[in-house]
């Protein structure tokens, strides 16, 4: 198929009637996660003949959908999640958006979908943030969560790759996924259901993986646990992920995260924490961790902490584990020292409170000196 060589320019068609400032500030006082959306969205069309074209920033609103839309039936869809933070000078910074752009391409490849050029992914995010900059929260820990996604827009019931797609970016202010004080989560280990299998789509951020995980999460809730932990599909022995977050195991000065076997989602927070842990002098490695190791090493005290990580929730301690046959506590069940140190290090880079030694923050839409509540900080 002939890919278009020129990148599409995003045409700005903003709403003349955005949500009033007073109402917006009310939302920003307590946004939750994924409940409220900003005034606009960016959409870009792909067709087999024309490639990527018709890029527009338009008012946020419903998308028309045909009942025979291929995505509704066969789930040809991928997504990303990244955050934009307001820095101490009012500057708006996205955390490693290039990594999201690349993973979006990798997910699309796996799902037989067209790859959006990295530059276009970034330009779409930037255009939306520039337009809706007033929606980027200024409260500590709060951020604007960007949700780029792509789905088949063609209609038909024959099972095949679609020839038409729509890329969309929407934005939602958030105070974090598990907001409030740092509370360790309890986990249920799924031994009946699996999330992803070798050769499957576990490494792609695609909707069907999440639909497949909902029964496991429901079982966790029925067991009185906060989150579900997934094991490998073949042996049901190796620990893979927790819900939609990657896991880390802390053995004193040594930190281990399950290696990327193809059925795990390669988290950008995971990769960043491996780097930060080494910066802080820990020995950080990727290896296989078995459920048996987790139980035995918790019991003998060599495993001191376990935490989960992801863009939405940051770094979250895991306090206790439950399986069909056993139940145990990790460390003393409270947030561990290494967990909290890594959590703070990451948060400070993102908020601009600490230096950014790896150049992870990408300036979005220039400095915003008109933001409410920031004038004082500039004087
Ligand atoms: C998105 C996601 C993660 C975390 O990835 P980040 O890039 O750190 O946000 C981990 N596991 C799954 C299944 C995910 O969907």
TrEMBL record:
The protein's required cofactors: pyridoxal 5'-phosphate
GO biological process: isoleucine biosynthetic process; L-leucine biosynthetic process; L-valine biosynthetic process
PROSITE patterns: AA_TRANSFER_CLASS_4
Top-level taxon: Bacteria
CDD domains: BCAT_beta_family
Reaction catalysed by this enzyme: L-isoleucine + 2-oxoglutarate = (S)-3-methyl-2-oxopentanoate + L-glutamate; L-valine + 2-oxoglutarate = 3-methyl-2-oxobutanoate + L-glutamate; L-leucine + 2-oxoglutarate = 4-methyl-2-oxopentanoate + L-glutamate
Keyword Nuclease: no
Post-translational modification N6-(pyridoxal phosphate)lysine, affected residues: 205
Pathway as given in its UniProt record: Amino-acid biosynthesis; L-valine biosynthesis; L-valine from pyruvate: step 4/4; Amino-acid biosynthesis; L-isoleucine biosynthesis; L-isoleucine from 2-oxobutanoate: step 4/4; Amino-acid biosynthesis; L-leucine biosynthesis; L-leucine from 3-methyl-2-oxobutanoate: step 4/4
Keywords: Amino-acid biosynthesis, Aminotransferase, Branched-chain amino acid biosynthesis, Pyridoxal phosphate, Transferase
EC number annotated for this UniProt entry: 2.6.1.42
GO MF annotations in UniProt: branched-chain-amino-acid transaminase activity
Keyword Coiled coil (UniProt): no
PANTHER family found in the cross-reference section: BRANCHED-CHAIN-AMINO-ACID AMINOTRANSFERASE, SUBGROUP IIII AMINOTRANSFERASE
Family listed: Belongs to the class-IV pyridoxal-phosphate-dependent aminotransferase family.
Protein name per Swiss-Prot or TrEMBL: Branched-chain-amino-acid aminotransferase
Species whose genome carries this gene: Planotetraspora phitsanulokensis
């Amino acid at each position: 198929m002939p890919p278009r060589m020129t990148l599409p320019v995003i045409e700005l068609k903003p709403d003349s009637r955005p949500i009033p400032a007073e109402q917006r500030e009310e939302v920003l006082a307590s946004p939750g996660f994924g409940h409220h959306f900003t005034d606009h969205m960016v959409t870009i069309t792909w067709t087999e003949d024309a490639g990527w074209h018709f890029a527009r920033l338009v008012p946020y609103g419903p998308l028309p959908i045909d009942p025979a839309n291929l995505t509704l039936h066969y789930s040809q869809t991928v997504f990303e999640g990244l955050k934009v933070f307001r820095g101490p000078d009012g500057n708006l910074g996205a955390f490693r958006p290039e990594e999201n752009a690349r993973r979006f391409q990798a997910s699309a490849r796996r799902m037989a979908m067209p790859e959006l050029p990295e530059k276009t992914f970034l330009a779409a995010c930037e255009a939306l943030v520039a337009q809706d900059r007033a929606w980027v929260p200024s409260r500590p820990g709060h951020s604007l969560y960007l949700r780029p996604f792509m789905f088949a827009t063609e209609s038909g019931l024959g099972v095949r790759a679609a020839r038409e797609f729509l890329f969309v970016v929407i934005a939602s202010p958030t105070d974090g996924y598990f907001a409030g004080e740092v509370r360790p989560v309890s986990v249920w280990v799924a031994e009946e259901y699996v999330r992803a299998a070798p050769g499957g789509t576990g490494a792609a951020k695609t909707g069907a993986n999440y639909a497949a995980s909902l029964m496991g999460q429901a079982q966790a809730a029925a067991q009185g646990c906060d989150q579900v932990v997934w094991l490998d599909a073949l042996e049901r022995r190796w620990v893979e992920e927790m819900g939609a977050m990657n896991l880390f195991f802390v053995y004193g000065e040594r930190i281990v995260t399950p290696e990327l076997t193809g059925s795990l989602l390669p988290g950008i927070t995971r990769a960043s924490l491996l780097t930060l842990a080494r910066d802080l002098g820990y020995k950080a490695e990727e290896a296989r961790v078995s459920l048996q190791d987790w139980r035995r090493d918790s019991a003998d005290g060599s495993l001191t902490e376990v935490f989960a990580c992801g863009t939405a929730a940051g770094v979250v301690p895991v306090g206790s584990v439950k399986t069909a046959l056993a139940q145990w506590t990790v460390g003393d069940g409270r947030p561990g020292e290494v967990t909290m140190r890594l959590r703070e290090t990451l948060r400070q880079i993102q908020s601009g409170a600490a230096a950014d030694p790896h150049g992870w923050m990408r300036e979005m839409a220039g400095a915003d000196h008109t933001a409410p509540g920031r004038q004082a900080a500039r004087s």
